[in-house]
Design goal:
alpha/beta, Aspartate Aminotransferase, domain 2, four-stranded antiparallel beta sheet, 11 strands, disordered N terminus, transaminase activity, pyridoxal phosphate binding
């Protein structure tokens, strides 16, 4: 699989600071207007809803099963767009969504926040398979911002606004230190990033009483204003050795999978599909199982996190597999 370099991309791409900003533009291109509805999976981060609310629309949730495939896509005359998610960089089967969009004349948006560098079994890069797609590059690379909107529909691409001006801010000390710690850690196996995270979280606990910052309900309704990413972030994207990063992630997935083979967790996926570049290693388990996993993967310099921070409307009736999903994050 040959991955396109940044310089080879077409004018169908636009870059933003964050994925939710790219999603706002995607919704506008899909002609989602105030009072309309957007179909979105219930298994989703709450800040995705801020993009929907920004354009004046209402989210309508559909459920996903333990394979993270849609259970049922409800219909309404007010629905103007459907969001399909490539969870953790694994290609979502889009056929049910294509069928739905053809039947009800709505636009499909491929949420590929986790899938930078990942492709389906046919070698098509994720985020490029639907009329509209978004990819949050900063979630795969250690950069403060950087997200991409892709428009493959010719008519919609003609409506694309100009690229927003790039921000002149530098990467910042935090990100430069993370990059250096990461390089040293991979060479020496000294857990510099884990030590740094522990110090930051202890400081946060002393100031706020919480080790990890959680989103509030306000994150769902925050007005999202699209801005361009930092020029320094874009330069880091251009410098990335894509093939090396793909190799690192796929090999790390195999090593983590082997390390957890006899643990008490249930992997979300039975195997790594061809052309998939994993965002991490997702699994189902309780809190104690997640702690055991962290101990088992510490030697790889990676962290176990809970995902996602569910929307408030979903939490009360969420099935177990929504609240028991964890991720060995490969960042």
């Amino acid at each position: 699989m040959k991955l396109p370099h940044l310089n080879e991309l077409t004018t169908a791409y636009r870059y933003y600071a964050y994925g939710r900003q790219a999603l706002v533009e995607a919704l506008r291109l899909a002609n989602v207007l105030p009072g309309d509805e957007v179909l979105v999976p219930a298994l989703i981060c709450k800040d995705v809803l801020s993009s929907i609310h920004t354009v004046g629309a209402k989210p309508v949730f559909y459920q996903v099963d333990k394979t993270l495939a849609p259970v049922l896509l409800p219909n309404s005359s007010l629905i103007k767009a459907v969001i399909a998610v490539n969870y953790f960089g694994f290609a979502q089967d889009l056929e049910p969504f294509f069928d739905y969009c053809r039947k009800f004349s709505v636009k499909l948006i491929e949420d590929n926040a986790h899938g930078y560098l990942s492709a389906n079994i046919d070698g098509v890069l994720l985020g490029n398979r639907a009329p509209l797609g978004i990819t949050s590059i900063r979630k795969t690379m250690r950069i403060p911002d950087g997200a991409r909107l892709h428009v493959s529909d010719k008519q919609l691409s003609e409506l694309l606004p100009d690229q927003l001006q790039l921000n002149e801010k530098p990467l910042g000390t935090r990100y430069l230190l993370q990059q250096r710690f990461s390089k040293v850690e991979r060479l020496t196996r000294l857990p510099l990033l884990r030590w740094a995270r522990s110090i930051v979280r202890l400081r946060r606990f002393l100031l706020t009483g919480e080790f990890i910052t959680t989103s509030t309900t306000l994150a769902e309704t925050e007005v999202v204003v699209p801005v361009g990413p930092r020029e320094s972030s874009m330069k880091e994207i251009q410098k990335l050795d894509e093939q090396a990063e793909v190799k690192r992630r796929t090999e790390l997935y195999d090593r983590v999978s082997s390390a957890l083979d006899k643990s008490k967790i249930s992997p979300v996926h039975g195997h790594l599909p061809e052309n998939c570049t994993p965002y991490g290693f997702p699994f189902f388990g309780d809190t104690e199982a997640a702690k055991d996993v962290q101990r088992l993967v510490n030697r790889f310099g990676v962290e176990v996190i809970r995902w996602p921070d569910l929307p408030e409307a979903v939490v009360a009736d969420a099935p177990d597999h929504y609240s028991n999903i964890w991720l060995v994050n490969f960042l």
